[in-house]
Please model this.
Amino acid sequence: MSLQLADAEVGDISDIINTELYPIHDSGHVRLQALIEHARAELAEDGCCLLKNFLRPEALEQARAEGQALSGKTFYSVPRSTPTSPKTTPPCPRMTRAAHSWSAPAVSSPAT
Model:
């Protein structure tokens, strides 16, 4: 596993993204199609979509460590809108509503 997020040389996307839950590498996968539909519905509802467990825990920790190490070089501001809603908006309601998080549909493995 070569997991260095700030490095352009990432070995495999599945080192960073939970591709079992979010199969973004397979455009025809049933779960990906369900995820896209879910994300579109959430964005249409209130302008945000929360993808729980999208990053693998190791990748999330690495990103957190990189962010901490670079924190002295950053500019911070409190966002007042989302990319899909230019008006001033409250924080994403999904951050506090776990019941709205996406659950991957059950998909049986193909017979071998």
Notes: The chain has one domain: 13-95.
